[in-house]
Write a structure and sequence with these properties.
Rna Polymerase Sigma Factor, Chain: A; 8 helices; 73% helix; mainly alpha
């Protein structure tokens, strides 16, 4: 079995390295990721005999390992900050605050009102589609059933409704200045 793994390593080593490099955009991280991938391959060497497409299997392992590392780093960075050895700030300032500030609440409420007003300018079919998807949070399949149309039709209506809503929002000069200042 070790000979089989050596053969796989020799054949796909460069491919995995380049894939890791493409994902991480950093040689040191690519090497670390590649090492994790090969550790997993060795760990699951019993499954190698059952694999029909080794390259696809290795690609899947690489992509999943990259995603796991990314998620772990995001979670870790949410709760830790790079600080010098001596802290000049209270420790409670380092704890993330997930509450929305009063200003953000007011801004969100105002934006919601504006978007709802502009949605009223859309055709009824587009209004319903947007409402079902974003407000009621129905899936595409549920909207398809409710509106008695295909999922493809729902997707195209959703696309057109968003594009039209964007046009309406940007055609309002005062609003366009607020959204996209020059």
């Amino acid at each position: 079995m070790k000979e089989n793994l050596t053969k796989i390593y020799d054949e796909f080593n460069r491919y995995i390295y380049h894939l890791c490099l493409k994902l991480t955009r950093n040689t040191a991280e690519a090497e670390d990721l590649m090492q994790e991938v090969w550790v997993k391959v060795v760990r699951y060497e019993a499954n190698v005999a059952e694999v029909d497409h080794v390259k696809a299997w290795l690609t899947t392992i690489t992509m999943n390992t990259f995603r796991d590392r990314y998620r772990k780093n995001v979670r870790r960075s949410k709760y830790t900050m790079n600080q010098p050895e001596t802290l000049d700030v209270p420790i409670l300032d380092l704890v993330p605050n997930n509450e929305i500030s009063t200003e953000e609440k007011i801004e969100k409420t105002e934006i919601t009102k504006i978007v709802q007003e502009k949605m009223n300018e859309l055709d009824g079919i587009y209004q319903k589609t947007l409402w079902y998807f974003y407000v009621d949070q129905y899936s595409l399949a549920e909207i398809s059933t409710l509106m008695k149309v295909s999922i493809g039709t729902v997707k195209s209506r959703l696309f057109r409704a968003k594009a039209r809503l964007k046009e309406i929002l940007l055609s309002d000069d005062a609003l366009a200045e607020t959204i996209m200042p020059a």
